[in-house]
């Protein structure tokens, strides 16, 4: 034998296997099934985002309604009130009267969530308190000069 050519079946090179190679198909199928199951588990465990439903104006403040309790960070900065909510919602704005003077409020979308700012021509002070009510979350913002 001087080469690997076929001479009546007497050669050192094995013949090709005519059966299909199933191992790559099995591994590919397992990978696809694993990804699909992981995506389904991820969808089930993802929390529903909190949503701003409405803003009501009171005589001395605002009532902000959410679908659930949002994470909240609030500050009084230079006489204005800023509340940052970890929630989704549409931008809104409005005006209210506090002791016969105008107070402007605005809800806008930021990178950190929804930002509620309350601004007046004079310095404001404010308190906020939230509680569940009727299956929703009610946040009352009380303002004073």
UniProtKB/TrEMBL annotation:
UniProt-annotated stretches for the region Disordered: 1-21
Protein name: Anti-sigma factor
């Amino acid at each position: 034998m001087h080469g690997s050519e076929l001479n009546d079946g007497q050669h050192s090179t094995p013949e090709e296997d005519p059966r299909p190679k199933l191992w790559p198909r099995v591994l590919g199928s397992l990978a696809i099934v694993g990804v699909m199951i992981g995506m389904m588990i991820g969808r089930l465990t993802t929390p529903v985002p909190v949503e701003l439903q409405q803003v009501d104006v009171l005589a001395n403040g605002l009532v902000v309604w959410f679908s659930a309790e949002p994470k909240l960070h609030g500050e009084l900065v230079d006489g204005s009130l800023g509340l940052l909510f970890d929630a989704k919602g549409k931008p809104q704005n409005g005006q209210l009267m506090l002791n016969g003077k105008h107070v402007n409020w605005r809800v806008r979308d930021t990178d950190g969530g929804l930002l509620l700012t309350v601004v007046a021509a004079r310095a404001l002070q404010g308190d906020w308190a939230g509680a569940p009510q009727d299956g929703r979350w009610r946040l009352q913002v009380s303002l004073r000069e």
